[in-house]
Amino acid sequence: MPSHITPRSAQPPSRPPAGSSSESGLDRRAELREFLRSRRARLRPEDVGLPSSTRRRVPGLRREELAQLAGVSFAYYTRLEQGHGTTMSAEVLDAVARALRLSGDEHAHLFRLARPELHANRHAMPHTQRLRPGIQLLLDAFDGVPAYVFGRRLDVLGWNRLAITVFGDWSRLPPRERNLARLFFLSPAARDRFADLEAKMLDVVSVLRVDACTHPEDTELVALIGELAEKSNDFRRLWARHDVRRRGHGVQRLRHPVVGELTLSFEAMGLQGDADQTLVVHHAEPGSTSRKALWLLTGLSALRTESAC
User: Fold this and answer.
1) What pLDDT does residue 239 have?
2) What's 74's DSSP letter?
3) C-alpha to C-alpha distance for 207 and 224, rounded to whole angstroms
4) DSSP strand E in the chain: where?
5) By the 8 A CB rule, do 60 and 40 touch?
6) How open is the CA angle 1-234-243, to the nearest 5 degrees?
7) Dihedral (C-alpha) 109, 222, 249, 93: value to the nearest 10 degrees?
8) How far is 264 from 91, CA to CA, in rounded Å?
9) Which of 19, 109, 198, 305, by CA, is between 20 and 30 Å from 169?
10) Separation of alpha carbons 33 and 114, rounded Å
């Protein structure tokens, strides 16, 4: 299943999906083409100081307008949007990023797609994902805060007792199902716990797209994206947006079956020694009802652990 996905319903049955790739990994040229088109489509002429026109067949800036803003020829920019980024200098890519008003995450994504050779050695992918025993001890030491670690493809690698009390018992799932993307798009129980489900799903899709670009040879990721595209309308809709971002902190509103609504802040931190593993820690404001609810859930999780022994 291709990692660059066009919803099947949008294609005639006899025609392969646009931008499809083999099962060996990501089609970078198709990804680059669609990413640039999507970023160009979100800009209005008046946003960049150009006169607006009512005779536009498609939304956003035209190619020639973007080329003018970036200071490159129309033909040169067209080659980039056709997927020929490997011939482009860093200066040209920087100019295009400025013209498109890309965020920092989007700017980096453009370089990963257009100049993959600059990232190939930096992101060599190990064969297996393992959580260091010391990290699990750290998770267990957190008191009153749910914490977990995810790796490539958003696989959940480790957690503490409070995390599974808050988010659902991942320990009861087969290892293949301990994946945040599968949970958020395919598990009704997991989806029901998030009051801001749309924002969470967008975060998940954005991380998967970055992973797909960073590790284009990851066939397990290709299979995961294909599975989600087949089974989830929400995933297909959000994947088509080509949004790229990594939120290192924020706020989530949860609906817990025992304590009701929780408002938790989170911090996401990369782990030293493995760039693909991220530690996520949630906490509540001191004195808040969410803080009191976390302490209640901490006690419940301790009682369940004792009764299981």
Assistant:
1) 94
2) H
3) 13
4) 147-150, 156-159, 249-256, 260-271, 274-283
5) yes
6) 80
7) 0
8) 41
9) 198
10) 10
- Least confident piece of the model among 114-118, 160-164, 246-250: 114-118
Task: Give residue for tokens 């929780």.
Answer: 262
Instruction: Tell me how far apart the alpha carbons of residues 223 and 25 are, in angstroms, rounded to a whole number.
Output: 9
Q: Which amino acid is at 5?
A: I
Question: Which residue do the tokens 């320990």 mark?
Answer: 171
pLDDT category of residue 305 using cuts at 50, 70 and 90? low
Place of tokens 């609504």: 261
- Mutual angle of helices 197-214 and 28-41, in 10-degree steps: 140
Cα 266 from chain centroid (whole Å): 16
| Burial class of residue 152, CB neighbours in 10 A (0-12, 13-18, 19+) | buried
Provide the token pair at 102: 């890309």
SS3 224: helix
| Residue keyed to tokens 């297909």 | 236
Burial class (CB in 10 A: 0-12, 13-18, 19+), 15: exposed
CB atoms inside a 10 Å sphere around CB 250: 14
Q: Compute the distance between CA of residue 113 and CA of residue 26 in angstroms, rounded to an integer.
A: 10
Interatomic CA distance for residues 294 and 283, integer angstroms: 8
The dihedrals phi and psi of 56, each to the nearest 5 degrees, come to -110, 120
Q: What's the length of the chain?
A: 309
For 168, phi and psi rounded to 5 degrees? 120, 150
> What are residue 148's DSSP bridge partners?
159, 280
- The beta strand positions in 165-206, using DSSP E, are none
pLDDT, residue 120, reads: 52
Residues in Cβ contact with 159 at an 8 Å cutoff, skipping those fewer than 6 apart: 139, 146, 147, 148, 149, 170
